[in-house]
Amino acid sequence: MQLNSIIIENYTITYHERNSEANETVFFIHGNSNSSLLWDKQLNDEQLQSYRLIAIDLPGHGESSHAENPVEDYTIIKLGGLMYNTINQLSDGKPFIVCGFSLGSNVVAEMLTFDLRPEGIILVSPSIVGQALAPATIKNKAIIGEVLFGSNITQKKLDEYLQLAIPDQYHHERGLLQSDYLRTDHNVRVFLMENALKGIFSDEVALVNLSELSCLMIIGLDDEITSPDSYDAVDLFTAKVNFIKLDSTGHFIPLESPERLSNLVKMYADETF
């Protein structure tokens, strides 16, 4: 698996890539304080090897560069624009779908503002918001907001969050989440929330609906980070949006249920391309 980089608007954006010769691409975008390593099990899953697979590090995450002006650049709209330009260059005019996890789902939705034209989108543990779905309805326990959108978090608080985020048996995966959290630019967490509180985000629910793209949302029924029933309102989405809820799985579906997720991505890609 190759680690590559591309320059987008003075950012060095890093990404892991498999099967660079394949014609159709699945792009993966991680969540808040994660990295492209979140998708390691998908990129190495035999089920998906007929596709070009690219997992991107968001700015301020993983190996990508940090913002020189975090107040202005760490907004969900700005991240959407940066990822739009990144994917436009990397797709090279060939067919692609985009899969976003948690905050990555917001980034995918925001990219639709810029006329992104994938064949379809997959939102895993989604947290998209809009006029019909306020941000306050998505978040669960207070510790989540404190850790994911705060600075100078103690190890005790981080441990408390990680225990909530993923079950104890996923010891290696919990270590990855901690490592990625600690190397993420802390300004990401601070200014994403500050800018969101100023209303600097789009009506992401409307963007998904207006795109008329096929959209698959995958939710873990044991999710303690975002409410599994947040999107249950009957009239919230068009018929183009389909939901799959996985039992015995929490928020970090790529780590807790990698084979099931890879299978769903493969089935969706096979049907969509």
Overview of the molecule:
There is one protein chain. This protein has 273 residues and is an alpha/beta fold. It has one domain: Alpha/Beta hydrolase fold, catalytic domain (Rossmann fold), CATH 3.40.50. Helices cover 38% and strands 18% of the residues. It is built from eleven helices and eight strands. The protein has helices at residues 40-43, 70-73, 76-91, 103-111, 142-148, 155-165, 171-183, 186-197, 204-211, 253-256, 258-272; strands spanning 2-8, 11-18, 25-29, 52-56, 96-101, 120-124, 214-220, 241-246. The chain has an eight-stranded mixed sheet with strand order 1-2-4-3-5-6-7-8, sandwiched between helices. β5, α4 (103-111) and β6 form a beta-alpha-beta unit. α3 (76-91) packs across α4 (103-111) and α5 (142-148) crosses α6 (155-165). The longest helix is centred in the first third of the chain and has 16 residues, at 76-91. The radius of gyration is 17 Å and the shape is globular. The two termini are 23 Å apart. The model has no long low-confidence stretch (mean pLDDT 95).
How do the strands and helices of this protein lay out in sequence?
Blueprint: E1 2-8, E2 11-18, E3 25-29, H1 40-43, E4 52-56, H2 70-73, H3 76-91, E5 96-101, H4 103-111, E6 120-124, H5 142-148, H6 155-165, H7 171-183, H8 186-197, H9 204-211, E7 214-220, E8 241-246, H10 253-256, H11 258-272
Parallel strand pairs: 3-4, 3-5, 5-6, 6-7, 7-8
Antiparallel strand pairs: 1-2, 2-4
Helix pairs in contact: 3-4, 5-6
